[in-house]
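Narrative of activities, Objective 1.

The group set out to show that a structural description can be obtained from nothing but a protein's sequence at a throughput compatible with the screening campaign. Below is one input-output pair from the validation batch, recorded exactly as produced.
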Amino acid sequence: MQAKLQERLYPADAEVILGRLPERIQEASISRAAKIEYPIAAVIYLSTSR
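Output recorded for this entry:
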């Protein structure tokens, strides 16, 4: 039986990723999340998904 992969970025993981990005990208990501009323984890996940 194959394990089912769960595509999800947890908030704690998103914060780690966000903290490693350049400041201007951090600010843009936070601004975008607020503008579209999405959690920052969702915005980061969407920006990294293909």
